[in-house]
Amino acid sequence: AKESGRGTRLFYTGDMAGQPAETLQQEHLLREAMAQQALRLHYQPQVHAASGRLAGFEALVRWQHPLRGLIGPDEFIPLAESRGLITPISRWVLREACRQLKAWHDEGLPRVPVAVNLSAIEFRQRDVVREIAQVLTETGLPPEYLEIEITETTLMQQAEHTHTTLQELQALGVAVTVDDFGTGYSSLAYLKRYPLDKIKVDRSFVIDTPGDADDVAIVTAIIELARSLQLQSVAEGVETPEQLALLRRLGCELAQGYGIAPPMDAQRTRAWLQALAPA
Ligand code: C2E
Ligand code: CA
Ligand code: CA
Ligand code: CA
Predict the structure, then answer these.
(1) Is residue 12 a contact partner of residue 22, using CB atoms and an 8 Å limit?
(2) 175, 201, 54, 35: which is closest to 116 by C-alpha?
(3) Rounded Cα gap, residues 237 and 119, in angstroms
């Protein structure tokens, strides 16, 4: 069973024996959603903290549910993982993100990379890098425009496979970000052992800055750590100008959050990109 984050759950993802009928029905709906192309990608801008210039997007999956409207990933990814549906969903996400970015590049819109979240189950697949390489070839997106986000917890498992996979991604030219940094059990040794590109400060540390001195200390330490290991730092969950100002002062390189721009559907993202493009 996966830990539930915030808010109420749409699905019961704990002991499946508890509510078999409902779970089966939701599983059925999720399979149908894939068949009916009811999954959507939203894109959230990441900007250079110092200049505000666009640095890239994070792709975030949603489900256009027939009855409940747009449903966030925290409410169906755990179900997908437990019911063996994460692989087709992840492959769709990867392909769609690459396809979309390539289409925007071809339209002459500003060329920036897209970051895709990979769940532990996907990252552990033996052929994960081959799959990624194949999607890049098929969509024509150059590898330097794809980034992979993997949580710290995922990186801490299966050291040998993780090491090989990260080396292959590096060889392919795809950047890797450690997501939710600071929330897992980490030895920190992995940061120098593995080829990584960015550290993403978890939003739980950002949310109470600049008021909370402890959180300011943690965020400062993570940014310093990233700098000394020559990794880029990204802060997520940036909601206020004060938070952005703090991050800038601390030398955090990239920022993402509602205070900068929310995740937007493809149409709005395109309009957003177009507004940036020189006339
Ligand atoms: P994450 O990777 O930490 O993604 C960031 C989440 O923070 C997103 O939630 C985003 O909408 C939200 N967020 C962005 N700015 C702010 C802000 O200023 N304040 C707050 N409070 N939240 C903000 P979302 O889209 O609901 O995604 C939740 C999680 O679901 C993601 O967390 C990620 O772990 C997972 N996820 C999303 N898309 C995918 C996917 O395609 N595949 C997999 N395996 N997981 C995904
Ligand atoms: Ca992420
Ligand atoms: Ca995160
Ligand atoms: Ca998260």
Answers:
(1) yes
(2) 175
(3) 20
Cα 75 to chain centroid, rounded: 16
CA of 20 to the centre of ligand 2 (A): 31
Across 248-252, average pLDDT: 98
Ligand 1: centre distance to CA 60 (Å): 6
Per-residue tokens: 213? 């001195």
pLDDT at 33: 81
Q: H helices then E strands: how many in the chain?
A: 12, 9
209 burial via Cβ count (<10 Å: 0-12, 13-18, 19+): buried
Q: Is 96 helix (H, G, I), strand (E, B) or coil?
A: helix
Mean pLDDT score of the chain: 90
CA dihedral 239, 245, 250, 256 (to 10 degrees): 30
Residue owning the nearest CA to atom 35 of ligand 1: 73
* 154 Cβ contact partners less than 8 Å away, ≥ 6 residues apart: 118, 119, 120, 123, 162
Q: Which two tokens stand for residue 14?
A: 């704990």
Q: pLDDT tens across 137-166, in order?
A: 999 999 999 999 999 999 988 989 999 999
Contacts 24+ apart (CB under 8 A), 136-141: 136/98, 136/172, 136/174, 138/95, 139/95, 139/98, 139/99, 139/102, 140/102, 141/98, 141/99, 141/101, 141/102, 141/105
Q: What is the pLDDT of residues 175-230, one digit of tens each?
A: 999 999 988 876 788 898 999 999 999 999 999 999 999 999 999 999 999 999 99
Ligand 1 touching residue 114 (CB < 6 A): no
Whether ligand 1 lies within 6 angstroms of the CB of 178 is answered as no
Asked whether the ipTM of the predicted complex exceeds the cut of 0.85, the reply is yes
257 lines ligand 1 (CB under 6 A): yes
